[in-house]
Amino acid sequence: MTRDDNRYKNYVQILKEELRPAMGCTEPIAIAYAAAKATEVLGARPERIVAEVSGNIIKNVKSVVVPHTGGLRGIQAAAAAGAVAGDANAELEVISNVSEKQIEEMKAYLGNTEIEVCHVDNGHIFDIIINAYKGDDNARVRIVDFHTNIVSIKRNGTVILEKAIVEQGGGLTDRECLTIEGIVDFADTVDLNDVSEVLERQIQYNMAIAEEGLRGDYGANIGSVLLASHPEDITYRMRAYAAAASDARMNGCELPVVINSGSGNQGITSSVPVVVFALCNNKRHDEMLRGLVVSNLVTIHLKTGIGRLSAYCGAVSAGCGAGAGIAYLQGGKVEAVSHTVVNAIAIDSGIVCDGAKASCAAKIASAVDAGLMGVAMYNKGDQFFGGDGIVKDGVEKTIRTVGRLARQGMKQTDEEIIRLMLED
Prior knowledge:
This protein is α+β, with helices and mostly antiparallel strands.
């Protein structure tokens, strides 16, 4: 693939669009971003906030600690953080610079301010509307389909911004150009200068939070448990580092991550095992970067059909991506990567997403294990065949099937999960 090929340009742009830094779990951060923007438009700290959110937003915000809040959890905390200390210009790093004084202000604000949460279904899985009020003035900000996609801004009913809501992914580079064959070709031929900035940042941020997760006491400490049980086993080390990063991220660690497909956990899962594998096997740095190209783009390819949020655990797709990147680092090409992805899909596609919380780290460990098993099966000459469950003949057909399963088949499952989570 050459630099003047449109696919080459699209692949570079897709990586730049998806591998973005974020502080904390991205759904509460999106709420904080919307609240910060609404506060900016209002021109004053709101006296009252009404947050209208879709079920999947509730699911992914309910149980995680919002960073830089002194341990606060949930939608109200995220909205308060954005209103009190948010910098809307920083987007997904909206609350990355918060003082101790502001944390105390957040807590006082939560105690003295009405922040109402309404579950709405406007036909979008990802939907956040923040209504902010101060005296006779009000501001309204709406985000739809992905975390920074502000589609509407109003002040006192006057439209400041209004743009059409298109199919999920609107405004982003068309992902239909992604194929496993194209991804491997791009990884082989890409001028690393075109992608090194986003990949180097991913390595730096995601390995830093993994190491912090292993040092600290976060959530259920899945990473530490795995590493302690088999400290010399590289397969456990890959799983442990990825899980530890999620341990920290889901439980209030104030370090940023580089996300993939709108998710920090998916950014971690698609990168950390590949980096650990490369380091433990003395791979050259340029080889590591090309392996990350494969793992990230395979994850994005899988997530395109699934959607940003669903009942299908996103770590599964990222685990497939990690396995693909590792297969590539072992010298595998299209056949090896394709079989690894199909094998991993066949193993772990039953994991449901029941929101962002501490147990995501364990799901990540399982997803990485499935990716590694997919590699091992291919290396041994074993595989799953078309007709084995949801597996189809060919990797692209299998990927499309998973997208259909997650987006259409699991829609009712997603709704039931949300109802269960909202019950006492």
